[in-house]
Amino acid sequence: MSITVIQEANEIERTIRRLAHEVIENNQGTSELILIGILTRGATLAERIATEIGNFENVQIPTGALDIVLHRDDLKMSGPAPKLQKSTIPKSLDGMTVVLVDDVLYTGRTCRAALDALMNYGRPASVRLAVYIDRGHRELPIRPDFIGRNIPTAPNQSILVELNEIDGVDRVSVIEEEL
Amino acid sequence: MPTQSKSDKSEPTKSEPAIWLRKDLLDTADLNLADFNLIFETTDAMIEVRERPIARTTTLRGTTLATLFYENSTRTRASFEIAGKALGADVVNLSASQSSVGKGESLIDTVRTLEAIGADILVLRHPLSGASTLASKYTNASVINAGDGMHAHPTQALLDLFTIKQHLGELSGRKIVIVGDILHSRVARSNIWALLTLGAQITLCGPATLLPKYFTQHKSDLQNVTVTTNLKTALSNADVVMTLRLQKERQRNSIIPSLSEYIRNYQINNDTIALAKSTAIVMHPGPVNAGFEISQEVAEGKQSVISAQVTNGVAIRMALLYLFATRTTDFPA
Amino acid sequence: MNNILIRGGRIFDPGNQLDLYGDLLMVNGFVSEISQHIEAKNAQIIPAEGCIVTAGFIDLHCHLREPGFEQKGTIASETKAALESGFTTICSMPNTDPTPDNASALQGLKEKILSDSHIRVLPVAATTQGRAGLILSEISELVAAGCVAFSDDGNPIESGLIMRRALETAGSLGIPIAEHSDDPSLSNNGVMNEGYISERLGLIGQPSAAETSAVARNIEICALTKAPLHLMHLTSARSLELVADAKAAGLPITCEVTPSHLYLTEDAVGGDNLVNEPAYDTAAKINPPLRSEADRQALLAGVNAGIIDAIATDHAPHASEEKLQEFSKAPFGISCLETALATITTLTNRGELDFEAALKALTAGPAAAFRLQEGLGKLTPNLSKDVTIFDANEQWIVDAHQFTSMGKNSPLHGYELTGRVKKVIYDGILSWSRESTT
C-alpha cells in the first residue's frame, strides 16, 4: 500500500478560499444561502467555507450538518450499518439555495442520499453541490457545481481527506492498494 | 486494511463503530453497556428525524414488520406501527382474536407462519411470561418483546431510561424510585436490570404483598436495590419517581386491602412528590389511572415527563427497528 | 437352559446386607446361589466383570398414561423403557382415564398390564372417586382386586377429615396411602419454585411452605390414626426435618424423592445469571417443582441417612407438542426412567450420594415401604427372580430423542452422565441386554 500526499495545510486553505468565492459569485451574493455539509468531513468543510465567506463578506451564512445513513441505498450490503449521527438543520429549507458540501465525490450515491434527506426539510429553491475532491467513476447522473480539485483515480486507489478538527492534521492523500 | 468498497462512507473512523449483533430483544437483562449506548445514540438521531417537517425515511423499504399482540394495547402497538412506517417498512398487525390463534393455533405455529409469509421482524406481546423467549427459538425473524406476562417489557425500559437521560444526564449514582405493584410488573423488572447496568440506585416501594421478596437477598448486583413499604423514606432525595399502573383487580383477592388504602399510602400527588428532590421527574408507563396511583395534577404537572416518554417511545422503537433491519454478521473481508 | 450364571460382578444387595465380588447362579428362574466362584453346567453365562449386580429396581411412582392418555405414553412403551432402565417392578399411578377408583376399572387395567407390559406392574388405585378428594373410593374392593397402595397423585387430599378416613380404612387392611402433599391455596397455581428465579422470570411460584405445611398436617393425621402413610416426591429441606422427627417418634411414615430433585435445582428452569438462555425450559417443569440448592443438599443427606426410603422416578412422559408451549401452559412432568440410574451413579461418583444408601433406595427400601412380597428388591435365594446388572462408570451423553419412552421431555438432554444399565433379568429370564455398540 502506498500513500502520496497531494495537498498540505496551506494549499487546502487556498482551495477553500477559492471555493468560498465561487459559491458567493454563483449565488450573486449571500441571500437565502445555506451550506449543508454531509457528516462527517463535509460538515467540517461547510463550516470552514462559511467562516471564509464571513471573512470577506462580513455575513454569517447559516450552516447545517446532514447524516445520510438513513437514506443510503446499500445498507444491507457491506457489513454492519454505520453509526447514526444526528443531523442539525437550523431552519426550514423552503425557498433556500442549499449548497451541499462533501469531501470526496465518487459514485454519486452519497449525494443522491443527501438529496433524498434534504427533501425531509422542505422545498429548496435550488440545490448546488460543492465537493472538495472529485475522483471520478460516477454511477449516477450527479454533477458537482463547485470542485476543489479534480483527481482522476484508478479503482485500486482512494482519496483520504484529513481535517484538523477531526484528524488533527490538514492533508489530502492518494492511497493505492497492491493490485 | 479493509479493501475499499463502493460505499463512500465506509472508511473506519477513529473509534470502531458499535455493532448490533443480537437476533432478538427479549429483555434489558440481555444488554450490556455498549448495547445501551448504541441504542441511545441511534435514538438521538431518530428524535431528529421525527422533528423534520417530513418526519420519515425509506430506510427500511423492503423490510416487513409484523406485530402480533395477544393482549390488547393501543399505545404500544401504535407506537411500533408509527415507528415502522416512519422508516418506510411494511407493517402487518395481527391480534389474537382475528388470527387463527383464536382457533387454537399454537404460538410456535403462528410465528412460523408469519416468517413464511415474509416477516423480518416480529413484535410480540403476550400474557404469559417466557412467550417471546419461546417464539425467538423457533423463528429466524428477529423477535422484539413488547411485553410477556410479568417478565419483561424491554422497549418500555429503554424509552424510560432514555427519557431520564434526556432530562437528568448521566444515570450513574442517580436515585430512581419505582412505586406500585412491583411484584407483577414487567415494566419494573426490565427497568431494574437496565438501571443496574447503568449504575443507578434503585428503591422499590409498595405494599408488602406487591413487593418482590427474593430479589435483594440474592446477588451482589442487587446491593444497589432497596425495598421498602415506606413511601416517605423511598422518595427522600429521589431523582426520578416512576409510578406503575395500579391494576384494580388486585383488590379482589385481598392482595391489597382496599384502593383507598393504597391511595392513602402510595399515591404520588402534590404532597408526596414534594418529598423528592425539587428537580425530580415523574414518570408513568401509561395509561394513567388519574386519581389512583398518581394525581391528575402531578400527571400533568411541570415535573411530569409522561408525554416525553410517549414521544421517545416512537424514536426508541425506530432505533431498534433500524438496528435489527441492518443487523448483519457479514463483515467485509 | 433355564439356568443363568452371572459371572465376576460386584454383587451388591443392601437388602440382605450382601456385598461380594463373585458369581450369582439362577436356577429355574430363581436366585439360587451367590458366592465367589460357582461352577455351573448347562447355564447361560452372563459376564458381569466391572459391573454391579443387584436386585431389579423398584419404582413406586410411575405414570404409564394408559388408559386415556395414549398420546403421551402406553403401558407397552413405558414398561419397555422401565425394563431398559433396570426397573423390574413399577407402581402405576391412578391419574388415568378411567380412574381406577373401582374394582372393574382396576380389573380392566390389570388385564391390559397382563397383555402389554414388559415387567411387573403393581397398580396404585385412586384414594377418592375421580381423585376429587371428596368421597372415598371402594377401598376394600380395590384391595381385593389387587392394588398395592392408594393415591390421588397429582392432587392432594385437601380435607383433613377425608385424609383421616382414608388412612383409617386403608390402614386397617395394611395398605398405605401415598400422598402428594400440597396446600393448593398456597401453591396458588405456581409453575415453579417460588424464589429468586421465579421472581426474575415473572412466573408464579409455589413456596416450599405449600408442601411443608401439608406434610405437617399429614404427619399429624398419621399420628392420630397410626395408619401407614407414604409421602411422595418430597422436595424441601423442611419436609425432611418433619419426616425425621415423625420417624423418630415411631410413626408409620415412609417417603420418596425423585432422581430429578436429587440432581437438579430451580436453575434448570432459567439460569441464574440474568441472561435468558436457557430460560423457560419446560422440560424442567415438574410438580412439585425443582427447588433450591439448599433443598437438594438436604434431600441428598436424607437419602444418605436413610430417612428417605425410596428413590421413585415420578416418570411423566408427555407428547412433544404439549411441552412445546408457553411455560405456564405446558404440562408438568419429566420423562425420567432412562436417566434415573445414571443421575444416581453420577451423584455417587461425585461423592454426593452414598452408594449403598442410594442402591437400597432403589431396591429394598421401596419394597419395604409398600410392603411388597418377599423377594422383591433383594437377591434372596429361592425367592427373588429379578436381577439388574449395571456399569457404574460408563459415560454417555443423554439424547432424549432416542429414548424408548414416548416422552422425550427430559431436562438432561445433552448432559454427560455416568452409569448405565447393561442387562436385566426379569422373572428369571434375561429380558433385555444393551448391545455393546450403542
Element layout with pairings:
The complex is a heterotrimer of chains A (179), B (333) and C (438).
Chain A lengths: L1 E6 L1 H19 L5 E6 L2 H17 L5 E4 L30 E9 L3 H10 L7 E9 L11 E5 L6 E6 L1 H4 L3 E6 L3
Parallel strand pairs in A: 2-3, 2-4, 4-5, 5-6
Antiparallel strand pairs in A: 1-8, 7-8
Helix pairs in contact in A: 1-2
Chain B lengths: L32 H19 L12 E6 L4 H13 L3 E6 L11 H10 L4 E6 L4 H7 L4 E7 L5 H15 L6 E5 L6 H12 L3 E5 L9 H4 L6 E4 L2 H5 L4 E4 L15 H8 L3 H4 L7 E3 L12 H5 L5 H20 L8
Parallel strand pairs in B: 1-2, 1-3, 3-4, 5-6, 5-8, 6-7, 8-9
Helix pairs in contact in B: 1-12, 2-12, 5-6, 5-12
Chain C lengths: L2 E11 L4 E10 L2 E6 L8 E4 L4 E4 L1 E6 L12 H10 L2 E6 L10 H14 L3 E7 L12 H6 L4 E3 L8 H13 L4 E3 L4 H4 L4 E2 L2 H6 L3 E2 L1 H18 L3 E3 L5 H12 L4 E5 L1 H5 L29 H12 L5 E2 L8 H4 L13 H13 L5 H8 L1 H6 L17 E11 L18 E11 L2 E5 L5
Parallel strand pairs in C: 1-4, 1-5, 6-7, 7-8, 8-9, 9-10, 10-13, 11-12, 13-14, 14-15
Antiparallel strand pairs in C: 1-2, 2-3, 5-16, 16-17, 17-18
Please give a structural write-up.
The complex is a heterotrimer of chains A (179), B (333) and C (438). Chain A is α/β, with parallel strands linked by helices. Chain A has a single domain, classed as Rossmann fold. Chain A is built from four helices and eight strands. Chain A has helices spanning 9-27, 41-57, 109-118, 164-167, and strands spanning 2-7, 33-38, 63-66, 97-105, 126-134, 146-150, 157-162, 171-176. The N and C termini of chain A lie close together (9 Å). Chain B has two domains: 21-152 and 311-326, Rossmann fold; 154-305, Aspartate/ornithine carbamoyltransferase (Rossmann fold), CATH 3.40.50.1370. Chain B has a five-stranded parallel sheet. Residues 1-15 of chain B have low confidence and may be disordered. In chain C, helix 4 packs across helix 7 (208-225) and helix 7 runs parallel beside helix 8 (237-248). Chain C is globular and about 65 Å long. The chains are: A alpha/beta (179), B alpha/beta (333), C alpha/beta (438). At the A-B interface, helix 3 of A face helix 1 and helix 12 of B.
